[in-house]
Amino acid sequence: MAGIEVKSLESPDETRPFADKGKADVVNIGGGAVMRATFEPGWRWSDHIKPIAGTDSCQSPHFLYTLSGRMKVVMNDGTEAEIGPGDVARIEPGHDAWVVGDEAMEAIDFRPSPAQGQ
């Protein structure tokens, strides 16, 4: 592999729709993935993704940077946080989340490559 790899979220490798409430554009790079996710007002993991995932809560880890909008995250143990523009968040598996307010929430989610130990 070359010492540099460049991809654009403007030309994603994959686009994943979130039912009728948003989407994720994904680029695979360096053995990992970067996702630009847009969650429309009214989106909630337990309403829009749980039926597809088949789990009681989101089991994906997230390491993300919030571009716009707000999202509430509640962990299975009851711990909660609200994230908004400029926030960097690490969210472990076992959570529900939903958009807060009338503005779409847009975030960049960095998935680690195996070389990063994850």
Please give the largest β-sheet.
Answer: 6 strands, antiparallel
Number of discrete helical segments: 2
Report mean pLDDT, rounded to a whole number: 91
What order do the helices and strands follow?
Answer: EEEHHEEEEEE
Overall 3D form: globular
Model regions low in confidence, pLDDT < 50 over at least 5 residues: 114-118
Gyration radius, rounded? 14 Å
The spatial strand order of the largest sheet comes to: 1-2-3-9-4-7
Helix content estimate = under 10%
- Total strands: the figure is 9
**Terminal residue distance:** 20 Å
What structural category do the secondary elements indicate?
mainly beta
Instruction: Give the percentage of residues in beta strands.
Output: over 45%
Describe this structure in words.
By secondary structure, this protein is mainly beta. Helix content is 7%, strand content 46%. The protein has helices at 45-48, 50-53, and strands at residues 14-17, 22-29, 32-39, 62-68, 70-75, 80-83, 88-91, 95-100, 105-111. The strands form 2 sheets. The chain has a 6-stranded antiparallel β-sheet with strand order 1-2-3-9-4-7, with no helix packed on it. A 3-stranded antiparallel β-sheet has the order 6-5-8, with no helix packed on it. The longest helix is centred in the middle third of the chain and has 4 residues, at 45-48. The chain starts with 13 loop residues before the first strand and ends in a 7-residue tail after the last strand.
